[in-house]
Design a protein that fits this description.
The protein is mainly alpha-helical. The protein has 4 domains: 3-162, no CATH class; 214-224 and 470-489 and 496-561, no CATH class; 230-262 and 564-714, no CATH class; 278-463, no CATH class. It has 30 helices and 16 strands. It has a 3-stranded antiparallel β-sheet. Helix 13 runs antiparallel to helix 17.
Length: 714
């Protein structure tokens, strides 16, 4: 027997007043935990009311047996309010109930079923009153599941002697409604964890389990993992992954020459607490949240500053997500507001799609028009139920003068909740009007304005037993560290998209939740795992088995080489040149030149997700040419000159060694040294020795920077 068959049997017994206490408890449980069961129960009540209407009874009770005292005063007020909410015309004299028209029966039975379900929920204080929604100037009273809005050419009336059935008691969903916060109240979102859980969570145990589960996958697939990466390869990978740029000559050399067996742990801990890592995370998430091109013209710097503070202080990821969703205030004063301010266009459909994709790991943009064609668990109703949480959010633009001298106005937005009420309406594929309340993970909110819907969504995300926020972040972070996530793509989780390592994915998700959504610990576990230590070099036979680039399942038996992002390329070029010439190293984040350079590779599209395309193809020659000569045409000759001065009477081979360490974070190969000597000798025939050395050094630096090895993260 399916759960729906069980619901129908229990509903029949309820209508016949034949439920036992145990059966009543079971019916209550089904109604409060399964949305489909709620909808099926409504239909059952409607049908039963139509069949028994001419007999003068409502579902489950004789009218003459139900005393008014059986219904509480608040419930009677609700009934009267609902009755008045629907414009019904009185019946003409002489028309009996038994011979009423079919539309009267349908309207009356619909009213009874709606009243019954409203009372089922209202008795437990879930709904503070009738939910009134407006469409085309007509109020329609409904309950907390989807209801089809039906129109007729004539109005109907509910007989005055109709009394609703007593409600089922739904203790499991009773809760106290929180008050709406003020504009600056969203400063902290409680994370469901305990200090004891965090204290009991050992990093060593988590990493050991990661390694065990990865090794199990290798054994099951009879694959031999690559050897461990050498110090030069690993230190470059660690810096690029965590800080978003390559290490300097001094940083790479210090790690390579250190003999301590715990030097990996020490470097990882040092980088995780370094401001560069927080900057890298803030840049990446600013790009994800509003895009590199910022098409909606929100305050990108303010959002970046908010994220930088969150990552610098290592605030729980759930708290950061909560503030991004529930923030209110000015865009220049509360940076978190800029996320939604960028996506409230088109009835907040971009806000719905981007929230689901980034924070829940679900691609739902196509379900605004129809159910998902491949993922049965994603419906059009689910999209608009999530969309309903953003219907109170309002964005307004206010002009603010930048400074007294220029008088140039700069855009400032305000974000606040309107406190409005009502259902969210949408049309299904058949053109039928549907209405939904705010609903997530099976829990629906009242469609009134007594609560902040966005704050309620944050509460529901935090209480989600499936930990969707944690799963989405774990999958995305794993992909950042290893080149591939547990699913492809990383933001499309669900039964329709198999997970490559389900046990490992669950282990990391649960550990992340137990840690209190600690981002540094999550990154530490991944960086110190055996899979992250592996070399990118592997045998041909093994490459054929573990090749996700060709559509295979990633087994993480080696480090997958991949192309740097544009920000990584920009910063790494600067680091290499400045490191060679021993210039001070500073951050380029937020500089106008970097922003303009990156934007050359971005195309923005006016889609439902306000998304954009990154056109950077890893061509370093093109990348340096597009730097407009500011850091290149003068910087490279200057760097070559500094190298020449530092060599003095030293051997010629020391120049390529320093250049290779600055650009590729390794020593020069024998062939590279040979090529440099040959170039130097050829130039010496027509140039003074010092000039020949400088020119050869400049040519070698260009060659290293233009190599495929430089532009790859491996």
């Amino acid at each position: 027997m399916t759960i729906h068959d069980e619901l129908l049997n229990l509903a029949n017994l309820y209508c016949e007043e034949a439920l036992t206490e145990e059966q009543l408890d079971r019916l209550q449980f089904l109604l409060r935990t399964d949305v489909d069961c709620q909808s099926l129960f409504i239909e059952m009540i409607q049908l039963h009311g139509q069949l028994l209407w001419s007999g003068g009874i409502s579902p489950g009770h004789q009218f003459d047996e139900l005393a008014e005292s059986a219904v509480e005063t608040d419930d009677l007020e609700l009934i009267e309010a609902v009755r008045k909410a629907i414009p019904l015309a009185p019946l003409s004299a002489g028309i009996s109930h038994a011979r009423g028209s079919r539309r009267i029966v349908i309207a009356a039975s619909f009213m009874v079923s709606v009243l019954a379900v409203i009372l089922l929920v209202i008795r437990q204080n879930q709904l503070p009153g009738p939910v009134s929604v407006a469409s085309n100037e007509t109020d329609i009273s409904t309950q907390t599941s989807v209801s089809e809005i039906t129109t007729t050419s004539e109005n109907s009336v509910l007989p005055e002697d109709v009394v609703p059935v007593p409600p089922l008691k739904l203790d499991g969903i009773a809760r106290t409604q929180p008050q709406r916060p003020d504009a600056n109240a969203v400063t902290s979102v409680p994370v469901q964890t305990t200090e004891q859980f965090v204290a009991d969570l050992s990093d060593a145990d988590v990493i050991e389990e990661i390694d065990r589960l990865i090794r199990t996958a290798w054994e099951d697939n009879r694959i031999q993992p690559a050897a461990e990466a050498g110090d030069h390869e690993w230190v470059r990978r660690a810096y690029l992954t965590l800080t978003g740029r390559i290490p300097t000559i001094e940083q790479a050399s210090e790690y390579v020459t250190t003999s301590s067996p715990r030097k990996r742990d020490r470097l990882v801990d040092s980088l995780l607490s370094d401001s560069l890592t927080a900057e890298n995370l803030a840049v990446n998430w600013t790009n994800l949240l509003i895009g590199r091109s910022n098409p909606r013209d929100v305050d990108e710097q303010s959002l970046y500053s908010f994220l930088l503070e969150q990552f610098t202080e290592n605030r729980p990821w759930m708290e950061t997500v909560g503030q991004l969703i529930a923030a209110e205030g000015r865009s220049d004063e509360n940076g978190a507001t800029n996320f939604l301010l960028a996506h409230l266009n088109d009835q907040a459909t971009p806000a719905t799609a981007v929230t689901a994709r980034l924070f829940l790991g679900q691609q739902v943009h196509c379900t605004q028009c129809h159910d998902h064609p491949f993922a049965k668990e994603r419906s059009q109703q689910e999209f608009w139920s999530l969309n309903a949480f953003f219907k109170q959010a309002e964005r307004k633009r206010i002009p603010v003068t930048a400074n007294a001298e220029s008088g140039t106005p700069r855009p400032v937005w305000t974000l606040a909740d309107s406190g409005g009420s009502g259902m969210t309406f949408y049309d299904d594929r058949l053109g039928r009007k549907k209405a939904v309340p705010p609903q997530f993970a099976g829990e629906a909110l009242p469609a009134d304005g007594t609560t902040s819907r966005r704050m309620e969504l944050v509460r529901l995300l935090n209480a989600d037993s499936n930990h969707q926020v944690a799963r989405a972040m774990v999958n995305r972070t794993w992909a950042q560290f290893f080149g591939h996530g547990f699913t492809a793509p990383v933001d499309d989780l669900g039964p329709h998209n198999p997970v490559s390592h389900p046990e490992l994915f669950d282990h990391l998700t649960k550990s992340f939740v137990r840690s209190g959504y600690d981002m540094r610990r999550l990154m530490r576990w991944m960086t110190l795992s055996q899979a992250f230590r592996l070399s990118s070099v592997q045998s041909e036979a093994t490459l054929a088995v573990d090749d996700p680039q060709e559509g295979g399942t990633p087994l993480f038996s080696r480090a997958y080489p991949r192309q740097m992002g544009p920000e990584q390329v920009y910063d790494s070029i600067r680091i290499a040149i400045r490191s060679v010439s021993q210039q001070p190293i500073d951050s380029s984040v937020g500089t106008t030149h970097r922003k303009e350079w990156v934007e050359q590779f971005v195309r923005s599209y006016g889609t439902d997700e306000n998304d954009e395309q990154l056109t950077f193809d890893g061509n370093i020659s093109q990348a340096m040419l597009m730097m407009n000569g500011e850091d290149i045409e003068s910087a490279i000759p200057l760097a070559a000159g500094e190298v020449t001065k530092s060599l003095q009477d030293r051997t010629v081979s020391e120049a390529p060694e320093r250049l290779a360490m600055a650009t590729l974070n390794r020593g020069a190969t024998e062939n590279e040294e040979k090529a440099f000597r040959n170039r130097y000798r050829a130039l010496s025939r027509s140039l003074p020795a010092e000039q020949a050395m400088k020119t050869a050094t400049e040519d070698m630096l260009w060659a290293y920077l233009n190599s495929s090895e430089f532009v790859s993260l491996h």
